[in-house]
Every structure is written in C-alpha cells, then in structure tokens.
C-alpha cells in the first residue's frame, strides 16, 4: 500500500476528489494533507507567504473535521527554522503553549516541526500530538536520524538530497 501526504489547499472539493481517488485505487491512498493557518500564526511557515491561502483557526477546524469524516488526516506544518528564541523565554513558552492548545482544540493531532527545542516543548505538554521531524531538519545521515529518534521522534521527513538514495535509506 502506498500512502501520500499532499499539501492542503483547504478546499472541501479537493478532499472529495481525494476520497474518490482513494476509493478508485485500493492499493494507494491520500492519507493526509498538510498545511498551516495564516491568520494568527505566530510562527510563519516553511512556504513562501504568497503560496498560502488565507486560513484561520475556524476554517482549519472545519477543514479538519470534513477531512476526518472522509478518512483523511491533517498534519499541521510548524516549520520555521527560527522563531526568535521564543521557545527559551517564559513569555514565549506561554505564547507557544497557548497556540498549541488552540491548534489541539481545532482538531490538530499531528505536527511536523523543524526545531528540536520546539519538539521538546510540545512533548512536555499534556497533549497527544504525534510529532514528525520536518525536511527542514535536513536529516540526511544515520546520525541525524538517530538524534531525532533519541528525542522520541518516530517519523521523519528526510532531506531532499537523499529521499531517493536507497543505499542511504536502507541504513
């Protein structure tokens, strides 16, 4: 079985089309979409702002609920490589935790994160987020993968430079 994670355009019609594809092709499926909000997003994104549609928490929650009804999960992209060291200050930690609670209330259960410090902060919370290491982490060696595994990360989006290098992937 092949599983695909595709960028979210936050349109219900697209989810309906993915559902049709999933029914038509039993050996492969769109298992999730990924993306982030633009309104009230304290982090920014790994994408250029011009590539992202305007999305707030209310529309995100509606999109997640609609997707889950069709057996398609949502993965929130928390991908900036730098957040001004907010994750190391009392006020910043409070702001981040409040934001994460709001995401959780909106239905987010999987988050792709680029910063190890932010991964540890999310893990310290009493929320059952599944965390993935972002491709922005540039995981391209066994040692880097083992580092993220030592942080408790079980899923990693590998660096583009090796994602088709089967010799390296085997290690």
Give the uncertain stretches in residue-range form: none
Kindly name the structural category.
alpha/beta
> Within the largest sheet, what's the order of strands?
1-2-3-4-5-6
Mean pLDDT: 91
Give the helices and strands as they follow along the chain.
EHEHEHEHEHEH
Query: What percent of residues adopt helix (DSSP H or I)?
Result: 25-40%
Could you describe the largest sheet, including whether it forms a barrel?
A: 6 strands, parallel
Please tell me how large the radius of gyration is.
16 Å
Shape: globular
- Tally of helical segments: 6
First-to-last CA distance: 22 Å
Provide the β-strand percentage band.
15-25%
Number of strands: 6
Task: Write a structural description.
With 171 residues, the protein is α/β, with parallel strands linked by helices. It is built from six helices and six strands; from the N terminus they run βαβαβαβαβαβα. Strands 1-2-3-4-5-6 form a six-stranded parallel beta sheet, covered by helices on one side.
Brief write-up:
The chain has 171 residues and is α/β, with parallel strands linked by helices.
Question: Which features characterize this protein?
Answer:
18% strand, 6 helices, six-stranded parallel sheet, 171 residues, alpha/beta
């Amino acid at each position: 079985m092949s599983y695909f994670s595709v960028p979210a355009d936050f349109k219900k019609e697209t989810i309906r089309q993915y559902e049709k594809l999933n029914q038509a092709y039993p050996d492969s499926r769109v298992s999730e979409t990924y993306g982030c909000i633009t309104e009230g997003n304290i982090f920014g994104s790994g994408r250029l702002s011009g590539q992202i549609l305007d999305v707030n928490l209310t529309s995100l929650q509606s999109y997640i609920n609609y997707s889950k009804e069709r057996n398609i999960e949502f993965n929130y992209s928390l991908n900036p490589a730098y957040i001004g060291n907010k994750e190391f200050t009392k006020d910043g930690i409070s702001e981040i935790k409040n934001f994460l609670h709001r995401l959780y209330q909106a239905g987010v259960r999987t988050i792709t994160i680029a910063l190890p410090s932010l991964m540890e902060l999310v893990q310290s919370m009493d929320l059952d987020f599944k965390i993935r290491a972002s491709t922005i982490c540039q995981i391209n060696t066994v040692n880097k993968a083992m580092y993220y595994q030592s942080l408790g990360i079980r899923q990693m989006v590998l660096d583009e430079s090796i994602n088709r290098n089967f010799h390296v992937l085997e290690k």
